[in-house]
Amino acid sequence: MRILVLSDIHANLEALDACLEAAPPYDRIFNLGDIVGYGANPNEVIKIVRELGKVFVRGNHDRACSGMLSLDGFNANAGLAALWTHNHLADENLEFLRQLPKGPLAGMENVMLVHGSVRDEDEYVLVLHDAQPLLEETESPLTFFGHTHIQCGFSEENNHRWQTLMPIYRSPTGPQHFMFHLRPGTRYLINPGSVGQPRDNDPRAAFLLYDALEASITFYRIPYNIAAAQKKIYSAGLPERLAERLAEGR
Ligand code: ZN
Fold first, then answer.
1. Can you give the residue ranges of every domain in the chain?
2. How remote is the CA of residue 150 from the centroid of ligand 1, in Å?
3. Helices 240-248 and 76-88, axial angle in degrees (round to 10)
4. Which parts of the chain fold into alpha helices (H)?
């Protein structure tokens, strides 16, 4: 079983298209939430992901854009984008977002899916220090999470042998992938990175492939037409910063 893991697409159609085109053969898709918010193509992106897969956990932007979450905790640009998205979403897509399940969700045997973390769907797991208590508490050998827009992983082997896993890419521009094997007896938290708004100083779209048979994870970074995505954000009247940051990858 080969699973494509996507997260934080954020209504970026150009980035999603590029990822799907570059993706290796797969059997299923797991989607870790924040399908919309920030980008200019929420309806188009929802249509594609609905057709491709049925395994989703909701993100905070999915809740905010469908009117299920107050915008109080959002910064000004995120709040404006959520309102814009809410006003532009087709009714059936609003309904689709509202019925998305809250994580944690069992994606398959031994695999948990969350947007933020198992204990809080809105928690940011940014560094090893954040991951340690979660790895100590979890029963699941493998948890996929999103929310931070940073492609990385954390692991715990044999009680308290901790590790941060960062992919190493030779080229900062072309399509790249980075593969590693999961070790038996080790628990992992793995973030595929963000398809539509990376924040790890690499503007290329991010996702991963999990090969359950081989017990391997392959991180991908894929260049896409950033200028086209930016142009749509400008013409939609969305905050300009949301376009600028795509080129910076942060
Ligand atoms: Zn997000």
1. 2-248
2. 10
3. 110
4. 13-22, 42-52, 60-65, 76-88, 91-98, 128-137, 226-236, 240-248
CA 245–ligand 1 middle distance (angstroms): 14
pLDDT digits (tens, 9 = 90+) for 75-132: 999 999 999 999 999 999 999 999 999 999 999 999 999 999 999 999 999 999 999 9
Q: How far apart are CA 165 and CA 78, in angstroms?
A: 29
Is the whole-model pTM more than 0.70? yes
Which CATH code fits 2-248?
Answer: 3.60.21.10
| Biggest alpha carbon–alpha carbon distance for the chain | 53
Rounded to the nearest angstrom, the distance between the alpha carbon of 104 and the centre of ligand 1 is: 16
